[in-house]
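During the reporting period the student researcher (J.K.) took over the structure-prediction task from the postdoctoral fellow and processed the backlog of single-chain submissions. One of the processed entries is reproduced below for the supervisory committee.
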Amino acid sequence: MKQEFVIAGMTCGNCKKGVEEKLNSIPEISGIQVDLKSGITAIETPQALSFEAIEAVLGSKYTVTDRIVETSKWKALFPLGLIFLYVLFGAVFLQLPAFSSFGFMMDFMGLFFIVFSFFKFLGYRSFPTSFATYDPIAKTIPIYGWIYPFIETTLGLAFLFQFEVTLALWVSLFVLSVTTFGVLQSLLNKNKIQCACLGTVLNLPMTEATLIENIVMILMALGLLFGIA
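J.K. obtained the following structure tokens:
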């Protein structure tokens, strides 16, 4: 994939050469294009790299910022919103003709986990690295990122077929709370990283929408647990 960003701090040809050499030292990067005047840099990588990791290689002289225009943030989030609407209408459709709020939340959570795990599997090889940039467990236990899509699929099936629902709800609360903590931390630190909620096939920026999406799921899980109790 192609990742673009802006490197500030380059003042001459030697600076550009040094930046290129340092970027080439990152194993994941297979191609580099650096424009000295604008600082715009394009790299080819299997998955997006965090700006913090790039700055650590470049040194304190340089800063890395995102190359995003004001409206591109919302354009980038369009796939997330569209998928969310499809899940919403799908859950409503499954409840027809006799609508049940309990059944709706079960179907919504089931479809949510199934659809989102599908996109994670599409970019399965690169998902764990992207996920580890903000999920606390994936950061410390790398294998967690590899099994996370399978956890989501299992939870989705459990909700859709209403199998071991209480256990599925507690597991959902745990994994969603951990991820939400990581998302919140990234947003507070203003880290410009890729959101892995839809895997790495769609290059979505980490925004407040990701936080809201997780909070909605947590509230649904709490509501269902309260209803079951």
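The committee noted the following: DSSP finds ten helices and six strands in the chain.
J.K. will present the remaining backlog at the next meeting.
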